[in-house]
Amino acid sequence: MPELPAPVSQPTAPAPQAAAPVSQPTVPAPQAAAPASPSGAVLHSPLRRRLPNRRLALVLFVVMLSLLAAVVCAGIALAPTATATDFSQKNLSPGLGHLFGTDWMGRDMFARTTAGLATSVLVGLLAAGASACIALVLGMVAALGGKKADGVVLWLVDLVMGIPHILLILLISFALGKGFWGVAVGVALTHWTSLARVVRAEVIQCRQAPYVALARRLGRGPLDVAARHMLPAVLPQFLVGLILLFPHAILHEAAITFLGFGLPPELPAIGSILSEAVTYLSSGMWWLALLPGVALLAAVLLFDRAGACLRSLIDPYRAQE
Amino acid sequence: MTGCLEARDLVFAYPGSNVPVIDGLSLAVGAEERVALHAPSGSGKTTLGRLLAGYLAPLAGEVLLDGAVLPRRGMCPIQLIGQHPELVCDPRMRMRDVLKEAGTPDEEVFDGLGIRREWLARYAHELSGGELQRFCIARALAARARFLIADEITTMLDAVSQAQLWRFILDKAAADGIGIVFVSHSPALVSRVATRVVALRASASASALFLSPRA
Questions:
Q1: Residues B149, B181: contact at Cβ < 8 Å?
Q2: Number of domains chain A contains
Q3: B194 pLDDT more than 60
Q4: Residue of B nearest to A224 (CA)
Q5: B121 and A219: CB-CB below 8 Å?
Q6: Beta strand pairing status for B179-183 and B68-69?
Q7: Cβ–Cβ of B92/A219 closer than 8 Å?
Q8: Subunit contact A217:B123, Cβ cutoff 8 A
Q9: Domain containing residue B130
Q10: pTM tops 0.80
Q11: Is B19 within a domain?
Q12: Residue at B24 is within a domain
């Protein structure tokens, strides 16, 4: 992977000779100047030294993933604090003692937000991941499995799409006894439809590509071709779909928690925090809704940026941007 | 004759068309032969190439190798090289993996075709058309094809590169006993390479097949 041609570093070779006549003659020796700043010597080289793109994207990706992991770990660690009540400290606005303030039961909102974020990220990841996998499998089956399989999958897509999301999640969650798993399974089983259509269309397009026909003539079996040529072709779309599913999953989790069919009120989640905060907004306690909301937005954006980095690592056309 | 590629009474029409592009064509090519297909544009040379290499199934007739029908699965011993190399290389694979799909080419193939080792780590869009075409030829050779169908494979190249590639292909074909069917609009190239020129006449009800001596 890392041995991709790095055009940024290549102009260093002719640098000392080219630099000599252009730069001031007071420079003591060209060989001393060369390693210090190779970019200054060549006319078309970038002004600023920077990391090679792929390494930069990889570093960013790892940083963002570890941030998300840190949020989840902190949330799990802070779970006891998040439910601890202290009525001597209730309804405090954000300050040094309580960064995000406290609510009407004196619970620290920072701990609650972090713990809630951890729950939401876990539900979102689980549901979005499972949903995307369902979409990938069904999309590929529809595209490669012949007319009957295609018909069955499309019928399923229409069936699920025909029922309003919120209603279906509500029913599934209720049937599974609500709670974490009810929400996760409900969201996972309802959000795969549009991504499955995208995957199907991408695979059908790839199936007709000349390089796929050639791979078949080279003796590659259908499964081999699917794994080597089609999976990489749909991977960027798949990742984008996964990223777009994530906020959806969190918002739907919040929505059915708000309606009382989702996570139990004792489990801190952004959805339940927001739905509880709504009642206190009119009494001027803005921090109860705003700060958890901003934290949710930040988590979603973090996930989105991480996805963009991963995409630029995977998609060869964008690898050198 | 060590091997023989034979097309027998091939008929082919594209779906939705009543007029067959190829109508009752027969052709036999020996392993030591280099047959040039000669016909004006649009008369079915590329279609014939795709039929011979098994990309298209004829409506009637058959393609035989040593008297046997081509295997339906597995490596096809008749490999087609086309005039658009950028379409037949997966844009998401490095050239090393593109080649690996066919097998491992011999080292002499890299040198003979002028493929630089550092190109192996690149993606298809990071190479020019001519460079990619060298990879396509190397891939067909790595597949141990017994017949090559070369459909205007050097049209996009300058004369020197054309000569270099064809020189290598001819040497390799002679050494390994690979038969060649090729299409070219360049009379000079045809006269240099072909041992036999076959003229097709397209779409006529009795598609005539003219055999002419070496041009």
A1: yes
A2: 1
A3: yes
A4: B101
A5: no
A6: unpaired
A7: no
A8: no
A9: 34-42+72-212
A10: no
A11: no
A12: no
